[in-house]
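Note to self: the last two entries modelled the partners one at a time, which told us nothing about the interface. This time every component goes in together.
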Amino acid sequence: MIFRTPKQAGEWVNRTKKINFTFEGEAFSAFEGDTISSALWAAGQKVLGRSFKYHRARGVLSLANHDVNVLVTDGIDTNIRADVVEVKEGMVLTAVNTSGGVKKDKNSYIDSISPLLPVGFYYKAFHTPRRLFPFWESVIRKAAGLGIVNFDYPRILKRKTHSHCDVLVIGAGPTGLTAACAAAEAGLEVTIVDENRQLGGSLGYNRAGDSSVVSQLDILLAKAANMPNIKVMAGAYAAGYYPDHLIPVVSDSGINKVRAKAVIVASGAFEQPPVFRYNDLPGVMLGSAVQRLIYRYAVKPFNNGIVVTANDYGYRVALDLLQAGTKIAALVDMRQTGSAAYSAVLAKRGVKVYIGHCVYEAIASSDKSGVRGAVICAYDEKQNIALTDNKFTLECDGVAMSAGWAPAGALLYQAGTGMQFDYDVEQFVPSRLPNGMFAAGKVNGVFELEQRVRDGVRAANDAIRHLGLQAPQNEAEKHVGISPSHPYPMVPHPKGKNFVDFDEDIQIKDFVNAAKEGFDNIELMKRFTTVGMGPSQGKHSNMNAIRILAKIRDLPVEKIGTTTSRPFFHPTPIGHLGGRGFHSHRLTSLHDWHQANGAVFTDIGAWKRAAYYPAAGQSKEDAIQTEALAVRKTAGIIDGSSFGKIEIHGPDAALFLERFFTGVYTDQKVGSCRYVMLLDESGVVVDDGIASRLADDLFYLSIGTSNAAAVYREMQRSQQMWQLNLGLVNVTGAFGAINIAGPAAREILSTLTDLDLSYESFPMSSVRESQVAAVETRMIRVAFVADNGYELHAPMGQIPYLWNALIAAGKKHALRPFGSDTQRLLRLEMGHAMPGVDTDGLTNPFEIGAEWAIKMSKPYFIGQRSLTILAKRPLRKQLVPFVLAENYTGEMPMDCNLVVDGRDILGRVTSISYSKYLDRCIGFAYVTPSKKEAGSVFQIRVDSGALVAATVIRTPFIKTLKGA
Amino acid sequence: MKLLTCPMNGTRPLSEFVFGGEYRQAPDQDTCTDAEWAAYVHNRSGAPGDKKEWWYHSPSGTWFIAERNTLTDKVTRTYLLGQNNTTQEEGK
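The predicted structure of the combined assembly is written out below.
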């Protein structure tokens, strides 16, 4: 541990606990609390990873979760961020994105051919000749991406948790902690979230060599800890902003969705690097990274360093370095003014300060694994050029760099905050905050510690008043004095390698080239150069990219604007997002029976329905025909529990139905059933069903499965408007239904009930309430799938009992179950068109020949007025039943195949099926009205383009074709 | 996720609600012309601004009217149809 400093006040490492791990096959030791990077750096390991594009050696850059070139894998998980992830005993780590190890990466040759790979290279280079593209594709795919996906990765589902609070404070630096305490003192429930393991933010490390600020932090932390109404979420990041203050907070244990009444964003700012040649070498790092290394992990960043700065922050970093025992070869200040506050202080400490100078380039050590010096020269701050006439070289083993800040404003942007560029601080600051959002501290353009603390109190008071409590209205804080950020900390170099984006190895000249190619809008430039598209999402590169583009276009920065900020703020494991599906599905009480009897299920609306029951080795088609034949020859039974079932109670029930549906119900007799058809206001057919009158003031409505929820919803809306004297009860889940149909249905049923089932006393389209197998049922005589059919509606829980009783009673009649796919064929044989299958969103009732179901003389029903208009117009299409030729063996037409006449489209097929019972192909199709008469012949164009002749006939098909 | 205030059940997440289209007064179908009726049925104004909308609270089956600015997505009032004298403020 050659780079370890003496004990630092407030350090995060526990020196009493040693930890052993390996990196790239070498053994290392660390202290408990070290991150992987800090432990390696303490041991003198400087090459921690390789860059994405050129495979250049990289070390510590930010130590703030943005060191995306230092991604490691432990063989199970990949792309572990070494700069922030705590090292654990026994870890076996290797760097990702290397070929043959981080030290001797075979792909580092790419760096030497980088002039051949200008920005946009891949977009342009591999298009021609086309036949070579598969080769290039495999090369590019191998080079692209970071890490290797482990397909044996354990499937770990993390629970989604929810919490609520009055005020959510994002960021637990001095501003956030102060704001949280102020809001808590007003009695509010406060949650404070910070991505670091420990609270305090920059108050923990921005010391300028003076560790007395630690006591200030300790006081703040103690105050927050003593407030029972402050909930702390450390090691967790606020990942995005969703409407009405819903903030997903992501930690190792998963996602907690926090719903807040007010949000205070005190997320601080990301330090931005100055740009100069070889600013990416291991050993060149941000000033705040230097401070984090020293004060969090007690690691000396280097022994003899140079500090290059374009603000006063670099001077503070220099003082921290001196405190840690590092020699400072020089402090290089890119500004002409130097620092009024610190220049003299450092000179007194014996540090050579170069005002108006820059680091022209850093010099790599012979094996390119670190820094051995830096070339320094004068810098023209106005022209932003290096004056190299009197350049000189200083030896060093590290460079600390500071140039300014970019606000961590992602959540503010996502919430719709208006941001404007403030030249006093050279950064974007909020100008118009959404209701209930507040910003404080660095993200608000306030940098001095005392001011930040006051800004935290101000924001808390604003939030308190927003929540309806009393609090003073404090004056907004405004930065005074020297800007904490430099407007253009960029040093051009004819040989380039002055990196703006470390994720994607993007240099200044790449932006110039992109602009030359016409990509001179920030959103276009981002996509062409890929700046900000790496894993750090531009946290250290977007601001510089905006500045460079502003300079290229000679525009002020605010005219360039920013790229769009979207959730998530930080890469979030897919495993955190995945989980249970929330698409509900409904099962009938017979579901287990269907499963046990080999049913194949299908989704209809929210329901799982048995589609058919194939015997072993039987095809779907054969199974359906077998089941259909049973219904035609003996009897079949189907679980119809998913049908929509709605009760309409009350004196106005019949009136309601007359207004809602097209037919007449006021004169409907108790015990009888009538067809119902629902239109929308434009006269389009929406759905149909059966209304059974159980009493003067009670109708029992059964409708199709898929549309039932929507129909019930519309009934409720109509009742809300009409305010009739009635109640609607959706009994879809309370009642199950069984349909028993076929020639033997009546006989089977008669063994289980005392009800007189004779056709005279229980005719078609009537309803009876009676016991079947001692179960109270509502029996409806319908002819949907066969002439002899009974729908038995009974409480859902008693359906399995009833079902089994019917199966047992039907044994000697070869009664068998059939599924919903078979039901489709059976209803087609019966000649029933189905809304939603044989109609679409434009079909009116005249087009399906449903005039009989409409009573136009009623005072009102939904769609009536539109029908009066439609009735005046000639029909454009007509639904007709058709058959193909006997013994047709050609290509089978499919649903939606077109009906054509030469080049004209006359209509389309809506349903078509082969019926084994009829031994014919039958179906429905839309044709021009001139072809609607029985005997008309029309042509169907099948998928292959061939024409198939079809003949219009009358329904029911079974009657016309079989005379049954 | 957005929150919406049902006049019967209070503030609930948007996933419990179904949008029911803009609330528009139908012309008198006995006296209006075909063109007026067709305009009512088929034409909608997509211009952003303050709209009255139908919303349905699915678990309780409550239809109500929400006054929403479709540009800012801010809901100012929700109430049962015909009861818009009672103010129900949201988000203030």
